[in-house]
Every structure is written in C-alpha cells, then in structure tokens.
Design goal:
Helix content is 78%, strand content 0%. The protein is an all-alpha fold. The longest helix is centred in the N-terminal third of the chain and has 70 residues. The termini are far apart. It is a multi-pass membrane protein. This is Transporter.
Length: 387
Amino acid sequence: MQPPDSSAPPPHAPTPAASTAHAPEAPQLAGLEASVHKLENTVRRFYRLAVMVVTVTAAGLFVSSGGAVVMVVFASALVAVVLHAAARIISRLLHIPQWLSVMLFVLVLVGALSLVVHVSGPELTVQLSHLHEALTSERDALHNMLDSNPLGHAVLDHFPRFLGGNMVPDGRAGSEGGMDFAGSMTNVLTSTFGSVGTMVVIIIAGVYFALSPHLYANGILRITPVAYRSTMRTVLLTTGHALTAWVAGQMLDMTVVGMLTWSGLSLLGMPLALPLGLVAGLANFVPYLGTFIGAVPALLIALSVGPREAMMVAGLYAAIQTFEGYVMSPFIQKRAVRMPPALTILSQTIFGAFLGMWGFIFASPITAVLLAVASRLSAPLPPNEEV
C-alpha cells in the first residue's frame, strides 16, 4: 500500500487559486464601508445645517413680524429678574416663602412711589411740564432757523416731525413716530393699549414671572427634546444670571448718573435740574448712545439761558460721563457682564434697525445674554491659538 503524499494540500484547505480570488474582496469591502460611512456623515451634517437654517429663518420671520411682542416679553423678563433678585434677599432675611417676598417687595415699591408722588409729585409734574414746553419752544426755534437755509432745509427733510424735522407720515418720508419699524404688531400694541397700557402689561407679566419662575422654566424644558434638555437648562440658568448681573449694574449706574447730573445742574443754577437729572438717569439705561440723548434736553435749556451756561452744562455732562466710563463702569463690570464698547454700539444699531425703538432700548441686555450664553457653551480658546 502506497503512503499518502505529504505535499498534497489538506482536503479542506483553500487552493492557492481560491485564496487569490478572495484576496481583493477585503479591500473592496473596506472601501465600500468607508464610502457609506462618509455618505452618512455628509447626510447628517446636511440635515443639521438644514435644521439650523430653518430654525434661524423661522426665528427671524417671527421676530420681524412680531418683534414688539417679543420685546414686551423680554421687558417683562427684566422686571421679573429685578423682583426675583429682591425677593430672594427678603426671603433669606425674613425666612418667608418666595412668592410672599415678591408680594411684599411689590407692596413696598407701590407704597414708596405713592409717597414720592404725594410729597413731590405736584412739583415734579409742574417741572416736567415746563421742561416739555421749553424743549418744544427750543425745537421750534431751531427748526425755523434751519428751515430758512437751503442746506438746513435739506437736513430737516431727513428727520421726523417729533424731532423738529420735515418728515411726514407717508410712504416716502416714513413714519411720524420715526422710531417704530417693527411693523403691524407694534401698531396693534400701540393702538390697543397705548404706552401706559403696555407698561401695565409688562409689570403684571413680570410679577407673575417672578412669583413662579420655575414653573415657566420647567415648561420650556418639558417641550425641549430630551437630548437637548441639559443644554437648554444651561442656557436658562446662564440667561438668568446674566440678566440679574446686567440689571443690577445698570440700575446702579443710572442712579449715580442721575444724582450727579441733578446735583451738578443745581450747583450751576440751571432751571429744571430735577427733571433733567431724571432724564439723564433714565437715558443712561441705553449705554453710550443714551448719554447723548440725555444731554440734548439740558443743552437746549442751557442755550436758551446763554452760551456760557451751555458750555458749562456741556462740561458738566462730559465730566460725569468720563467718571462713569473710566471709573464707575469698570468697577461695575467686574461684578456684572463685560461688553466691548464697539459691540454694544453695533448691537444697538442692528437691533434698532430690525426692531425699532424696542430693539434700541433692549439691545444691551440682549447682547449681554448672548455673550454669556456663547461663553458658557463654547470651549475656551487655548493660549497658543489666541491672536
């Protein structure tokens, strides 16, 4: 019997030809899987981009069509932030529930305002009336002086009537209000409620927000997809902290500027020092640009007295704003929200163009919130990548 040939391949071993035939299939399969994976990533990125574009477009359309309503809601949130912050302090001191602290703080505010109105309300009303008459007289005088000159007449054609210009409420010259570009929603609010009614709505909504802030925050979280709830919670908390810091710093800034303006104008012997100081403090709610708005009434009144008084008032406002910009504002921003001046002015221009007067007023707190949220959600820049 002949022994088996040891050189013959085993019965189940693949032949060299079969091995050669199956060898190219592994790289082809790997390449196909890589192509499918790349296609999936491309589709996923395209889907995310499409969702982002649709979301941004929907938000833009909503803001452009109902910007005034959005700004009313934001103003109510600012009122709620003030009430909530004060109520937290009262709750810690008196050991009472949060809602009771809010109601107590509102009652104290109403009582204090009633006392101020009872004590100095008639005098303040008379001074504000005199201020309105003086500003109207100076505006008309300036209008007549410029309107008699061809160049001045051309300049007045680009200003609305309420500022002393020649703009009329038609399609060519724009709106007589001059500051309302938010569209029909603003007109609905103005015609239905009026300015006083809108303020009442803002205050009432702010009180309800402050009474139960967790109810509304949890409601937003419930309608947020589960995968994004952690991010949304971070955004809500960051927004609350940023608004609280901004409002606290801005209220301190407004109070100091108003008091310094009132005291300085009183020392200079200027008439209507109290209402002019009140206007300067309120105008300082809008950083930088509000400074010039608050100085215009005082300069007009000073010009009616004399050029020397006008120079003194201009020097006073310049000194107050220098102190506010280089001493007080940096001190406040250490504990509040730091915003670059150029970004603040640009945000006022952009929001004012899209949302009218509401956007101009609330551009700074909105920008502060956006900066805080972006800083919280984005990764810090490594030192070697800094410019």
